[in-house]
């Protein structure tokens, strides 16, 4: 009988140990959202682009976030502290610096990195030692996210007319009967008339910052003065980094890093 009790005790200890080991290997990121605070590749710390919030969020088996230029989403699985992902991204272009940074970030995220985390920090490190370190999103970050959603909603399905380009009034160029230069928003899409041609591109807004995708347009020729204005307009729009609504949300302003502006009024 004593041997029976000993055997039962051994079995119970084995079962308990199995549960403990299984629990120890479980990581639950569901419902959490994180902002990138450090990225290391090939032994070097890469500089996170200024005014750019790189994020990752987990919900159920879904993963999504912003990688610098593009949004990404997909599915994920965690096993033995290793994160496996299958991702899709939008296809916007940007500066070479941002494109290289985004590629490094997504490469590490998709390289089956090992997870270590606590209440405030999430670290993903792959076999080559390349590392993504995140801090948990705070209430302030959540407020930024809400502001982003509100701005995107306010712009959706609206149309605007350019009234000033880098301190130059459009009324000096277009007559009141002309359509002038316009911009419209639909979902994550921008379109409009740039003076001679129609143009179109994707865009992403993050907390007052805007990234404009590669602009495409029709190829119609026009008067030299309008063609010159069109090139100036599209260049400023392509390089715009800030976006804001003023005057009771009837004025829309795009601003580049060098301070050039496009000012629109709502139609």
Please give a quick description of this structure.
This protein has 267 residues and is an alpha+beta fold. It contains four helices and 19 strands. The protein folds into two domains: 108 residues, Lipocalin; 120 residues, Lipocalin, CATH 2.40.128.
Topology:
Layout: H1 2-24, E1 33-41, E2 44-46, E3 55-59, E4 62-66, E5 71-79, E6 82-89, H2 96-109, E7 114-117, E8 121-125, E9 131-136, H3 139-155, E10 158-165, E11 168-169, E12 182-186, E13 189-193, E14 198-206, E15 209-212, E16 216-217, H4 224-238, E17 240-246, E18 251-256, E19 261-266
Antiparallel strand pairs: 1-2, 1-3, 1-9, 3-4, 4-5, 5-6, 7-8, 8-9, 10-11, 10-12, 10-19, 12-13, 13-14, 14-15, 14-16, 17-18, 18-19
Describe this structure in words.
With 267 residues, this protein is of the alpha+beta class. The protein has 2 domains: 30-137, Lipocalin, CATH 2.40.128.270; 147-266, Lipocalin (Beta Barrel), CATH 2.40.128. It has 4 helices and 19 strands. A hairpin with a 4-residue loop joins strand 4 and strand 5 (71-79). Mean pLDDT is 84; it is low at 18-24 and 139-148. This is META domain-containing protein. It comes from Leptotrichia mesophila. Residues 28-134, 153-263 form the DUF306 domain.
Identify low-pLDDT runs.
18-24, 139-148
Strand content: 35-45%
CATH architecture title of the largest domain: Beta Barrel
Largest sheet: 10 strands, antiparallel
Instruction: Kindly state the number of beta strands.
Output: 19
Distance between the termini: 91 Å
CATH class category label of the largest domain:
Mainly Beta
Q: Output the radius of gyration.
A: 25 Å
Instruction: Summarize the amount of helix as a percent range.
Output: 25-40%
Please provide the ordered H/E string of secondary-structure elements.
Answer: HEEEEEEHEEEHEEEEEEEHEEE
How many domains, in number, for the residues? 2
- Using the alpha-carbon principal axes, give the shape: elongated
Oligomer: single chain
Mean pLDDT: 84
Instruction: Decide which structural class fits the backbone.
Output: alpha+beta
CATH fold assignment of the largest domain: Lipocalin
Number of helices: 4
């Amino acid at each position: 009988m004593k041997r029976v009790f000993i055997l039962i005790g051994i079995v119970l200890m084995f079962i308990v140990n199995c549960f403990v080991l299984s629990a120890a290997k479980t990581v639950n990121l569901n419902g959490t959202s994180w902002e990138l605070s450090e990225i290391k590749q090939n032994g070097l710390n890469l500089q996170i682009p200024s005014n750019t919030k790189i994020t990752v969020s987990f919900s159920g088996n879904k993963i999504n976030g912003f990688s610098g230029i593009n949004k990404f989403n997909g599915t994920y699985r965690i096993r033995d502290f290793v994160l496996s992902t299958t991702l899709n991204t939008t296809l916007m272009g940007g500066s070479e610096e941002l494109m290289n940074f985004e590629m490094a970030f997504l490469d590490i995220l998709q390289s089956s990195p090992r997870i270590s985390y606590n209440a405030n920090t999430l670290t993903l490190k792959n076999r080559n030692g390349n590392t993504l370190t995140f801090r948990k999103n705070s209430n302030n970050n959540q407020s930024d996210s809400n502001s982003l959603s509100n701005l995107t909603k306010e712009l959706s399905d609206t149309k605007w007319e350019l009234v000033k380009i880098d301190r130059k009034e459009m009324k000096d160029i277009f007559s009141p009967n002309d359509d002038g230069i316009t911009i419209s928003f639909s979902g994550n899409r921008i379109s409009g008339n740039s003076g001679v041609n129609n143009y179109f591109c994707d865009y992403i807004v993050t907390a007052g910052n805007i990234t404009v995708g590669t602009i495409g347009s029709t190829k119609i020729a026009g008067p030299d003065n309008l063609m010159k204005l069109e090139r100036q307009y599209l260049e400023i729009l392509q390089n715009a980094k800030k976006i804001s609504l003023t005057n009771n949300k009837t004025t829309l302003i795009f601003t580049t890093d060098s301070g050039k502006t496009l000012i629109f009024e709502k139609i």
